[in-house]
């Protein structure tokens, strides 16, 4: 099967390199390996009795072995890696690299492992970008068990360095998305970050951001309050409220269950119904803890629902939603009715403010690139002096955005609108499924997060009609029209005397510089009225449509909006512990596990 692959400005016909039909057994092994990679199935499965019986029924002469299948998986990985490498090297935008330490727990994932557990933890390095079709992509570049083989002083950098060097993307990385934990800071990553900046064109590439996962922040803030709950208290609450199995895997479930307990207490249900007489009920001190959790974590949940549920949220929505959370927590602190509540509210705000201060520039810049806000929301926020700021932060953000825009405007490629692959090669792609990939955690999510790219409009009939009308005018025009054209021709041929006027030429240069630097695309964008509020607004769709109007600024927007503020979305974003690896990889050799996790992201390239 052959397919045209669009890599920026050139088109290349590539072959999926299926084995030659002259070797049908090799082709069958390759097809089986691809199925296992795409479906996330452990190659050891072929040794189970049910699979062996199936193969015997389909073809008694086809006898796959684990070693042959693993060899095919490694070959597929190498083949797909070269295609991914070529794409990333040719990609004209910026990308983010994220780091996640994934650890096998002692729950149902361990119980469902086929074969012995060979790997218990992995470091997952993922590339995040928005492609030329304005679709969000997440590709795993490395999925390795490194903790035992990497020196401690290189533990936080090794995975990043290996991915950057292996894919030759030193000049492409604009951001590092890090766990919100100790050790991931300027001290340990500063040298690597500076190395990335030096490898790129310093006159064009902006400094590399270090950003931290918002889902991690929420998890740590929940832990600050939840750690005061004893196992007995939680079991007593489970019995009197009746919420089923007592589990701490997802904090949003605790919010609803503990809020239900508070509501029942406020309605005095435990005294009205004698059925509760036989149960142990929380003491007054314990009820203070429960109410504190329900109020403070309840504020977080209101914001988390908007940020983390319903799919991937681009970076433009985080600023106003996290600002809302900051205001809610401060109001809760003002209304504190106990020392315990006040202490926990202060501690949560302290952790939040540290994150907010570090992330302010990235989040605010992304917010400005949302046409519903532009500078208006940032200026409104600063006017409230929530951070004891009188507008200096707004000026800093605008100054950074102007500097960033100037860097992009200095490159020739940024003068052209981003060219959608679907628009250029729609006929070849109209029957293609697109690039759907799986998430790197236990479940599967769509890698192609945003909507499909729109096909370009080529209105040949309209162009033909215009040419026909011009022809009729040419042959049916009267003498007055011909005379006018002759006069216009003479005027055009007359030399421009102003070319010799030195002072006037100075004015033209002055006006041109004013237009370039004072009335740039950025100024034109900011000076237009903001859009009416629309909760379903999609920033990537808007910038894709406005790319021809803002060719430079749309590239800036694409690279800023592609920065992921949270690694996880939906169910996984509420986890109170580290994510676990898929059950099928922990019983594989490290090289095979890496090949399977990476390749299933690249198979559709």
TrEMBL record:
Domain hAT-like transposase RNase-H fold: 311-408
Xref: InterPro entries: hAT-like_transposase_RNase-H (IPR025525), HATC_C_dom (IPR008906), RNaseH-like_sf (IPR012337)
Region (Disordered) location: 1-23, 425-491
Domain of life of the native organism: Eukaryota
Composition skew (Acidic residues), residue ranges: 427-484
Record domain HAT C-terminal dimerisation: where: 521-603
Entry protein name: HAT C-terminal dimerisation domain-containing protein
Taxonomic lineage: Eukaryota, Viridiplantae, Streptophyta, Embryophyta, Tracheophyta
């Amino acid at each position: 099967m052959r397919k045209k692959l669009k890599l920026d400005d050139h088109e290349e016909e590539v072959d999926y390199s299926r084995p030659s039909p002259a070797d049908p057994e090799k082709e069958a092994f390759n097809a089986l390996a691809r199925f296992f990679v795409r479906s996330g199935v452990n190659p050891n499965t072929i040794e189970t009795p049910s699979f062996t019986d199936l193969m015997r029924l389909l073809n008694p002469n086809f006898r796959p072995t684990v070693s042959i299948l693993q060899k095919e998986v490694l070959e597929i990985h190498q083949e797909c890696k070269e295609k991914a490498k070529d794409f990333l090297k040719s990609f004209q935008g910026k990308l983010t690299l994220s780091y996640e330490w994934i650890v096998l727990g002692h729950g149902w994932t361990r119980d469902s492992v086929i074969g012995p557990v060979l790997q218990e933890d992995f470091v997952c390095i993922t590339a995040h970008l928005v492609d030329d079709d304005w679709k969000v992509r997440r590709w795993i570049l490395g999925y390795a068990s490194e903790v035992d083989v990497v020196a401690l002083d290189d533990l936080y950098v090794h995975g990043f360095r290996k991915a950057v060097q292996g894919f030759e993307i030193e000049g492409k990385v604009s951001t590092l998305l890090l766990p919100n934990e100790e050790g991931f800071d300027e001290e340990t990553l500063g040298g690597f970050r500076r190395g990335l900046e030096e490898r790129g064109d310093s006159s064009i590439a902006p400094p590399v951001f270090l950003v931290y996962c918002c889902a991690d922040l929420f998890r740590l803030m929940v832990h600050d309050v939840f750690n005061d709950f004893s196992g007995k208290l939680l079991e007593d609450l489970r019995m009197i409220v009746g919420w089923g199995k007592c589990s701490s895997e997802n904090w949003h479930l605790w919010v609803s269950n503990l809020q239900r307990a508070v509501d029942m207490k406020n309605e005095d249900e435990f005294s009205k119904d004698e059925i509760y007489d036989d149960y142990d009920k929380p003491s007054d001190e314990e009820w203070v803890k429960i109410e504190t959790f329900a109020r403070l974590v309840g504020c977080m949940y209101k914001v988390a629902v908007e940020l983390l549920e319903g799919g991937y949220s681009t970076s433009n929505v985080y600023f106003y939603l996290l600002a809302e959370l900051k205001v809610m927590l401060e109001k809760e602190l003002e209304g504190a009715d106990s020392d315990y509540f006040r202490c926990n509210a202060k501690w949560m705000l302290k952790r939040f403010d540290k994150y907010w201060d570090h992330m302010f520039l990235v989040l605010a810049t992304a917010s400005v690139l949302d046409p519903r806000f532009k500078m208006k929301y940032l200026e409104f926020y600063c006017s409230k002096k929530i951070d004891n700021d009188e507008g200096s932060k707004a000026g800093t953000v605008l100054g950074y955005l102007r500097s960033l825009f100037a860097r992009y405007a200095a490159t020739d490629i940024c003068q052209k609108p981003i060219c959608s692959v679907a628009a250029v090669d729609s006929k070849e792609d109209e029957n293609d499924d697109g690039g759907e990939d799986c998430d790197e955690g236990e479940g599967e999510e769509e890698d192609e997060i945003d909507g499909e790219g729109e096909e370009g409009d080529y209105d040949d009939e309209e162009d033909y009609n215009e040419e026909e009308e011009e022809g009729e005018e040419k042959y049916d025009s009267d003498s007055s029209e011909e005379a006018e054209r002759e006069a216009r021709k003479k005027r055009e041929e007359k030399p421009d005397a102003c070319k010799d006027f030195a002072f006037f030429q100075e004015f033209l240069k002055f006006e041109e510089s004013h237009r370039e630097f004072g009335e740039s695309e950025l100024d034109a964008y900011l000076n237009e009225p903001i859009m009416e509020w629309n909760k379903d607004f999609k920033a990537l769709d808007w910038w894709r449509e406005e790319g021809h109007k803002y060719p430079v600024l749309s590239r800036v927007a694409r690279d800023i909006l592609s920065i992921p503020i949270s690694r996880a979305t939906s169910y996984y974003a509420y986890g109170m512990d580290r994510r676990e690896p898929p059950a099928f990889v922990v019983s594989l050799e490290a090289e095979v596990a890496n090949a399977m996790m990476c390749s299933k992201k690249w198979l559709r390239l």
